[in-house]
Every structure is written in structure tokens, then in C-alpha cells.
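User: Run a structure prediction on this.
Assistant: Running it now.
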Amino acid sequence: METSLYLHKSKIEVENQDDEEEKKDSEIQNFNVDISEKKRREVVTTILLIFLQQIQSATKKQKIENANQLLKSISEYDPDKIECDISQKVYDEICKQLGECTSPEQKLLLDVVLVLAERGSDLSYRNKNNALFKFFHSSKLIEKIEDKIKMEIEKIANKMNGCEFQYTDPVVKYVQIYILIKKMKKIKQDIFDFCVKCMIFHIRHLFKYLKKQVNTLQDKELTEDKKSEIEVKVKEGTVSFKAVKDLILFEDNDKVLIEQYKLNEAIGPFVHFQCFGSKHCANCIDIPYSQSVQNLHGSAMNAIGQLIHKDKNADEDDEKDEDFTYEAKLQLQKDHNLFNHPLMLFHNFAESLQDINGQTKQTQFAISKFLLSLQLTEEQKQKEKDRNQRLNKSLQELNKKYQKYDKQQKQSKSRRQSRKKRIQQQQQSSKQSSSESSSDDNFDNLPEEQIIPSPEVGLGTVHLIHASVCNNWTMKVFTAVIDGLGGNLVMMAKYERKEHQNKIRMNMAKEIRWRSNEILIQIVPYLNKFSKVLTVKQFHILSALVEQLGLAGGSEEESREFHDGAFFCILQVLISVRNQSKVCVLIPILQKVVEEDCEESGGVEEINAHQFRQFISIFEIDNLRAYALVVLNTIMRLKDYTDQM
């Protein structure tokens, strides 16, 4: 017995010693992690400098290998850490080594500069500078790129003397880098002219190339080499569209881009990816909708949206006429069906984010049932009648213009259902039959479930819809009555709401959210014009706007105009339920919807902490304070009444 106890005790002691050693080892490992994080910037900089030095001193073969390794390292590096981890020394060394960009290693080095410029542009949320921009300027790398562009401009001037000028790949990359880094800065007119012509040349050339591939796809399948070639071309085009979007933001050049350079004609055709009813769309670029093609499509729609409605004038929508006129918008709509094309992608993107659960459906049914039981007064009926008479002519024109839209939407829905059935049948069949069917089908017949929309597509569709409704009363009215759009906008307004990190993807998510909210703000005043009572759509839009202002994350929009518009729209919705006969019954339903939506986004505690008071204290504009106070009093009345229930 003693022996067994002794052995048991020894075993426990040994186990305790092992636990202590493991604890020490874990502490050492954690310590090493802390050290590596502190020194990561130095380590990354040292490694990149070694690559750069080897490019300069090694043999020709080794130069290319080292340049490839450098490009791969920076391209695959975490985009959200690149700003902090790559110091100015790397930019200084690149600036020293960058030459004529004629040799393979020099072209690869130029690709490295382009990747850094693109990362800097992606990190620049709503045109704010970052460390990458500063390093480009302080290292004089951007000045070197500008000198190269000036040399190309001189070549054009010498063209009359017999020198033929071409926009080669290095020249296109010079322009892309320059625009991405010089975002919203003033540049000389000759450089601006050169940059615009270069981008238009590259975009038109890409469109011809892609249409050629569409014709090739009809005859035979693409080889792996051809697929790789298309991927490279598509990625280059994506960068060009990002540059074009920034190019549009340059001051005092809006009319020139449209009237002189016809930029809208060059970029308009790129809306035609994944066209609804693509077999009937002659302009459809029907190539496999891969991740890179999605990024190209999203970037193109982003650029078109920026051209149609410049963000810089967003706070003057109702006071200042835009350079891109109403007639120009209609022309784009006529030529490319510009509004309807992104709508289908927008619905697909929003529906892929979240499915409506049964509880929400029950809440919607309860609200709908109650609203149908409401009776309007004679005065309200007369007002509605007058409104309908004023809008009757416009609605008739809209119905004629967009009568095909509902039919196309139903066809798309039935097509999706048939595709689902076909997929289920394929899954039940053997592997051989499924592989044969996949090889026989062309891309237009692929199921939509296999196409997962990227954030670029989500942002592009929201941006294009937002641009279409701004300063366009007709489009606001049409958008307000589209079935399902309001609910999807509410869903998009919550896109990745839980995340608050300063990351590239999070910056994109922020833009998706605030553009979705801006669309809601634009269409809310028109919702009551087509219904006798407050609709379910309005309740969910109201709950989304309440959530945006209540969450601590709501302040991330950093836009006084956004808060002004949100408060005003909440006020517009609440005015219709302010009389005691309606609001008493609506209070618990409204409160429940708001709380459920906020709980879904993880913001109940933040809502309770804020209660709108902290937001009101930071505003100074009189009318904004008035909106806020009315909203606050109404919300507090709702809250107090709910507590008494």
C-alpha cells in the first residue's frame, strides 16, 4: 500500500513538474511572439532590402528570380499590415534601382511599385492619406514616375518627326501608379491629358480583347495557358478602373472627361458582365465569372458610379447641378440598361448574405395584418388622392419605360429555380454524368450558387445604384417602388457591422454600408407616396437608420451629412405614426423590430449606452438639432410606453 501511494505521489510530482515546464515553455513562446511582433517591421524591411540588393548585384538569371521573389513576397503580404511593416528604406532603394523598365527584372520591379500603389489606394478610405502615400512622396519615387511620364509626353511631341508612339505596358503602369498615388492632388494639364488618353486606350483595348475571347469560347474551350493570360489581362484592367475612379476625383476636370474624352463611352460597356437574360443582351461579356473577373466588374461599376455622381459634391445634391447631366444619365441607361443590370447582381449579393428567419417573417406578417386594418381620415384620403394625381403622369411614363423589368425579374427567378432542380438531379446522379454535364454546359448555364459574389461586386452595384438615384427624381421614384430592394438595402446597411478594424476589407465594408444608407435616405421620402399606410419596408428601413445612429460603430461614417439625412428620414417616417391612435399599437412592434435588428448586429449594449444623447451633443447646426430632438423625444416615448406595457 505504501509503495503504491509512494508511486502515485511520485507520479503526481512528475506530472506537476511537467506542467510547470510546459507553463514556462508557453511563457517563453508568448514572449517570443511579443518580440517578433515588435521587430516584425525591421525583419520585413531587412528581407526586402536583401532581395533588392541581390537584384542589383546578381547574374541575369538570379536577378529575375530575386525580382520574382520580391514581387511574390509583397503581393502575398497581408494587405492590412503592409502599411506598418514596410518602412521608407524599401521605397528609397526601389527608387534608386528603378530604371528604364526594359529588362525583365526592371519590369518586375515596376510591378512591385504598382502593387504598393494599389495597396495604398485601397487603404485610403474616402480619400484619406496613409503611410504608403507619404513614403512614395518622401522617397521621391512618385517624382521619378512623373519624370518618366514627362519623357513619354515628349515622345508624343516628337511623333510628327517620324517617331511612332505606343502606350506600352510600362507606360500604362506608370500612369496607373501616378494616378493612384496622386489621388485628388492637382496635376499639370499636359500630364492629365496624357493619363486620361492612356487609361481610355487601355480600357478600350481590354474590351476588344475580352469580346474576342467571348467569340473564342463559342467555338472551343479555353486552355490553361489562355485562362492564365485572361487572368493577367483582367487584373491589369481592374487596376486601370481603380485608377480611373481616382482620376475622376481630380478637381475641375469633370466636364472635360465627358465632353472631350468621352470617358463614359469607354467605361460604360463594362457593366455587361452576368447580364440578366444574357442570351438576349448583345453586349454581354460572357466569360467565366471568376474572382478576378468579379473584381474587374466591381471596379468598373465603381468607376462608372463615380463618373455619374462625384462623391465630392455629395453634400450639395439639392443645390448644385452636376457636370454629368441628367441627359447623360439617360443616354447611358438607354445604351447599356445601366440601372437594371446591377440590380440583379445586387439582389443576388444581398440574398447571399443572410436568409430571413421564420421569426422575422412572423413579425412582418403581424405588422402587415395590423397596417391593413388601419383606416385613413377623410383629410388623409384627400391628400393621398392629390399626391397620386400629381405623380400619375410620371408613374405612367415609368411603367412604360420599365415594364419589362418585372418580367425579366420573374424569368430570372424561374431560371434560378430550374437551375436548383438541375443541380439536385446532378448531385443524385453518378460522378460520370455530373462531369459530362459540366463539360457540355457553357458558362451561361452554370448555377448561380457556384458564383459567390465578391465584396468588389457588392460595392460596385451599390455605388452604381446610389449614383443613379442622386439628383434624379425619376430614378428615386422608380427605386422606391421596386419590390425587395428596401429589405436588401437594409441588409447591406448592416454588412459586416460587427467588424471595426482598420483593414482594407473593412474599409470596403464601410463604403458598402454608407452607400446603402445613402440610397435609403434618398428613397424614404417617396415611400409614402405609393401606399395609403406605413409599410413593412418603412419599418425595417427605420430600424436600420435607428441602428446606424445608435451603434458606436455608427460614428464610423464620419459624415455630418449622413447623420443629418438619417435623422431627417427617421423624422419623416415617425411623423406618420405620431398621433396617439396609431402609435400606441405600433410601439411594441416597432420596438421589437429595432431591438431584434440591433441584437443581430451585436449592438444592444451600445444602443443602451448611447440612447442618441451623445450624438445630439456633438451637432451644432440648428435644423439638425431640431431633427435630433424630435427623434429623441419620439424614441423616448416609444421606450417609455414599452416599459409600461
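DSSP finds 29 helices and no strands in the chain.
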